[in-house]
């Protein structure tokens, strides 16, 4: 669980796995544009790709929410 709360590792995952391959544009950006355009022609592998490249950003969003919303346990 400590790994999922480490800012440095999550940020590194976003910069590497989240954005790779970088050229001609970040892969996740291309997939998000495809989805915004109606996702026509997307196959199962494309959706898995979105999940794979988007997961580091989901973890980063989770960390931000944990930091912003005060815990009731404190």
How confident overall, as mean pLDDT?
88
User: How would the global form be characterised?
Assistant: elongated
The number of helical segments is 3
Amount of beta strand: under 5%
Span from first to last CA?
Answer: 19 Å
Oligomer: single chain
Q: Can you count the beta strands?
A: 0
Contiguous uncertain segments of 5+ residues: none
Give the helices and strands as they follow along the chain.
Answer: HHH
Number of domains: 1
The biggest beta sheet reads:
none
Report the helical percentage. 55-70%
**Structural classification:** mainly alpha
Q: Radius of gyration over alpha carbons?
A: 15 Å
Structure commentary:
This is RND transporter. Keywords: Membrane, Transmembrane, Transmembrane helix. The chain is built from 3 helices and no strands. The chain is mainly alpha-helical and 74 residues long. It has one domain. The radius of gyration is 15 Å and the shape is elongated. The mean pLDDT is 88.
């Amino acid at each position: 669980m400590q790994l999922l709360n480490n800012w440095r590792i999550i940020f590194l995952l976003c910069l590497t796995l989240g954005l790779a391959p970088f050229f001609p544009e970040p892969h996740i950006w291309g997939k998000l544009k495809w989805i915004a355009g109606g996702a026509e022609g997307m196959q199962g592998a494309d959706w898995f790709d979105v999940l794979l490249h988007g997961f580091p950003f989901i973890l980063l969003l989770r960390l931000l929410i944990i930091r912003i919303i005060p815990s009731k346990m404190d």
